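Priority: medium. Attachment 1 of 2:
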């Protein structure tokens, strides 16, 4: 519960805002951004699937004494007050990744600030206020994590969370002067094609950035690491779209350099999917409760090539999720 309290204090401090179209480029995203993720919490929380199989359990958990007191102290109802999240990430590898998150919703800043002050007094080794230029920023050290994260209110409409305090300070300065969007034009163009009504999407520029680990191998006939690496080098951008409605759907798309590379890579993807369909039932046999999902994965996991695009899709119905969740369906 302490971790949840800290995470809530750090990430949920924004004032009420109007919904923003996902296609709009958030002006607070740094110019270095290479991948953008959008999570539409409001759509997910209002979906039929969530309402049917998760809302009741979460509402019950939030009625617990500790959770209820925390929510009262924060002036927050997580099922009503969270709107959406935008995140920008970039870097050359796992140890070099940087990120800026922008959380929007409907909260009580005064209560959040009071609760933060109390938390700092209780655990000053995990929470403190630090300075970067003229800005005051919250420094938070997550449990079992070597690196801290930083957060601050960017305006009455947003809170920003970053992997270092300079990122947060720059976002505060951008908000203060009403800076215009500055991410790469290629990425902005990709964002303009995203649907703001989906549950979640991620889109990124990947050319020259997808590399297989050293000594990588696959137990798939006709697919060796060298061939796969060359194909991966042909991916210009990649995207993921998840939709939570009465069921769950997932689409992974990859934009290739040309149609010939797309056809070649599409063949490899088909081989990998066919191999996966062989192993999925074997893995599910170890966890029988997941067999309904494994069966549906086998039926709905597909790929296709369309021009310069390679797409993988999969769907899981609400009735199948209900069986796994212990529902009546």
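Attachment 2 of 2:
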């Amino acid at each position: 519960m302490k971790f949840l309290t800290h995470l809530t204090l750090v990430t949920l401090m924004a004032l009420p805002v109007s919904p923003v179209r996902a296609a709009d480029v958030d002006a607070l995203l740094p110019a270095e951004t290479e991948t953008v993720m959008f999570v539409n919490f409001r759509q997910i929380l209002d979906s039929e699937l969530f309402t049917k199989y998760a809302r009741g359990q979460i509402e019950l958990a939030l009625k617990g004494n500790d959770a209820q007191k925390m929510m009262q102290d924060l002036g927050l109802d997580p099922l009503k007050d969270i709107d959406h999240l935008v995140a920008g990430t970039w870097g050359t590898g796992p140890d070099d990744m940087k990120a800026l998150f922008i959380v929007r919703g409907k909260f009580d800043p005064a209560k959040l600030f009071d609760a933060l002050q109390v938390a700092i007094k209780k655990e000053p080794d995990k929470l403190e206020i630090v300075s970067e230029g003229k800005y005051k920023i919250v420094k938070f050290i997550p449990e079992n994590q070597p690196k801290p994260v930083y957060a601050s209110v960017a305006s009455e409409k947003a809170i920003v969370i970053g992997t270092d305090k300079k990122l947060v300070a720059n976002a505060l300065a951008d908000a203060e002067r009403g800076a215009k969007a500055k991410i790469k034009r290629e990425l902005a163009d990709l964002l303009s094609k995203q649907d703001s009504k989906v549950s979640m999407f991620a889109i990124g520029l990947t050319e020259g950035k997808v590399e297989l680990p050293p000594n990588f191998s696959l137990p798939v006939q006709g697919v060796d690491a060298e061939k796969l690496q060359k194909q991966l080098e042909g991916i210009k951008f990649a995207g993921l779209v998840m939709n939570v409605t009465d069921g769950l759907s997932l689409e992974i798309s990859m934009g290739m350099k040309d149609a010939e590379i797309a056809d070649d890579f599409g063949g490899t993807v088909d081989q990998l999917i066919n191999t996966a369909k062989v192993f999925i039932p074997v893995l599910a046999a170890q966890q029988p409760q997941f067999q309904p999902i494994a069966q549906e994965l086998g039926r709905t996991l597909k790929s296709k090539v369309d021009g310069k695009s390679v797409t993988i899709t999969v769907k899981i119905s609400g009735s199948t999720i209900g069986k796994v969740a212990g529902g009546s369906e």
